[in-house]
Amino acid sequence: MKQNYVNFMDRNNIYLILKETVSDATTEDRVMCFINERLDMIASGNTPFPINGGPKVALHILPINAFTSQQFINFSNIELLDLSPINSLGYSPLYNAEGFATYSDKGNLYYCQLYRNGLIESVRSNIAIKKAEKIFIPANDFEKAIVEAIITYINTLKKVKILSPIIVIITLLDVKDVFLGTHSGHMERSRAMDRNALMLPCFLIKEDSSASELPAVARLLKPTFEVLWNAFGFSCCHNFDKEGNYVGGLQ
Predict the structure, then answer these.
(1) Residue 34's domain spans which residues?
(2) CB-based burial of residue 40 (10 Å sphere; 0-12 exposed, 13-18 middle, 19+ buried)?
(3) CA quadruple 241, 152, 204, 207: dihedral positive or negative?
(4) Full-prediction pTM beyond 0.90?
(5) Are the beta carbons of 142 and 109 closer than 8 angstroms?
(6) Which residues are CB-neighbours of 45 under 8 A, at least 6 positions away?
(7) pLDDT tens-place string over residues 189-215
């Protein structure tokens, strides 16, 4: 039986974002179906490239036009794309039936798939480490990797002429009983994750936004990172100042 990864709050969040650009129930249903199907495939290990078990993150970059029009990327006129997987340590590129992908040469750590219609799926395993008999996700490293990956993918979509408002969805998988490690080292303040999958609040990147700049993307992620920290028992994300600027170590 397939799990429904998009709960009421997630669906309402996506609906409100779509309402800013399109008012179409069909588009909403297409987005929900795609996300649920892909997360179910990832969680069950049915991925385009082998990926390790254990805590992982799935990042989906969804141009709205991919669900509303017959847009396709012509890869024959494009040089090899910079499509680095999340927190990549090196990768191999590959054109495939779905479009263009990059994946880990060894270790089954990650992959990134660019579909022909502009959708991007990037999955990274081994996001947690073990210390003092606890498994935890280093908050700063995780957030930095996500921000940098989003910028890379937005720039890639611009290069292949996918010009559309974009929904960004981040989902943690296989994270039950995992903790969050903070920059202050107070891992003991974190509570263990109470669920196996956590979809964080999605957000919209508009066509005219400055989404290729680190500070701008980090600010867009503030509500998302707040919920990440909330889910581990913190009142807020400690990596933003009072003005909403990210101070978690981005360079």
Answers:
(1) 8-231
(2) middle
(3) positive
(4) yes
(5) no
(6) 51, 53
(7) 789 999 999 999 999 998 766 666 777
